[in-house]
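User: Hi! I'm a student and our assignment asks us to look at how structure tokens line up with a sequence. Could you show me two examples?

Assistant: Happy to help. In each example below, the sequence comes first and the structure tokens follow. Example one:
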Amino acid sequence: MLRLSKKADYALMAMKHLAEAEVGSSTSAREIAEQYNIPIELMAKVLQRLVRTGLLVSTQGTRGGYALGRAPAELSVADIIQAIDGPFTVTACSTDNNGCEQFGTCSIRDPLWQIRERIVTALGTVTLAEMATDNVATGVPVAVVRR
């Protein structure tokens, strides 16, 4: 089962909120945090990470805030989750790092890597635009729950 961190969950909520906002407008971290009852400090950290990865842009000043860095149709759920949590993993050896003592004899590593790739592909096909219009295609066989 794939588990999203709270930060990834909050990032998805914030990105959807921003995708639903008027084009050209910006929204403050406080406004987003209050809308979804999220601690402001945590929301600010999540938004700053999204700015560092280029998914959001921030503007300073009294009319400042956050806005999407790209069109919602160009942003996938996978982009957002990976910006917060890093690369997807399903096992301790989900990367090419062969530090596991069973690495050479493991019989499930390759099938699990293929499953990981399918998960990434499935999450990569869902755009922020689809989420913002609640028009996400059904039938994606991936269970996603919050930690």
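Example two works the same way, sequence first and then tokens:
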Amino acid sequence: MPELQKLKKLLRSKASPAKAKIFERFFKTAPGQYGHGDVFLGLTVPTQRQIAKRFYHLSLADIQKLLLSKIHEERFTALVILVHQFTHAPVPLSRHSGMPLAAAPEGDHWGVGATPKQIYNFYLKNAKRVNNWDLVDTSAPQIVGEYLRPLSPLRGEMERGVLVQLAHSKNLWERRIAIVATYTFIRAGQFDETLVISESLLRDKHDLIHKAAGWMLREVGKKSEPTLKKFLGQHAHEMPRTMLRYAIEKLSPNERQKFLIAKQRSLARRRRASSSP
């Protein structure tokens, strides 16, 4: 039996119709909701990760087929495999310097299996199939974030603007990829991209983006509270309420209150302005 069919059969053997119904509600699959059309087998994340371990060798062609599936667990498992392959991918070496390159010149040795750049490009090509928040959060930092991380030897100079481009996409999931990918930068103490992208998302209409941007800003605050406070001092008054509440969650009660008041005053001014003749 082909490996892809083995994986699908194993996933189905662990299915739980009762859990599937719970997941369908949790991931908002009703008509008009963000997850509409997503189909669940009812597998837990640990079960999917255990199954993925048996198929880390799966080809990109088979991973592509899984990402095109309507079944959520097939796409999730595909991304777990892809993250593993990225983490363990051979890095191309310059024949002149022996240093890793973002894009090896023609003729350089790329080793066995897909390279980080090839996997990164494959991921971006399929970004619209990374189409639920858990799929984004389990893969964007580990692939896009790690590839584009400032000072990363993998990243090319011309690729630095890709996150800003994604942040302006009409596709919800590409916008979430843009901001969540910066989690990798934050952990390395690098905040510029997170702040720039968060600012570009201040007027985004979707709650999932508000939550993601607020989450990343909160993580910035854990590393550098002054950096977060400076951003909030400039933008708290215009931040969506959910984004602001996520961002200030770890601040002191007095600090949280200060930024919430700034938001409330801004709303009051807008109401007065809109009601003026």
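Here is something you could point out in your write-up. The two ends are 73 Å apart (CA to CA).
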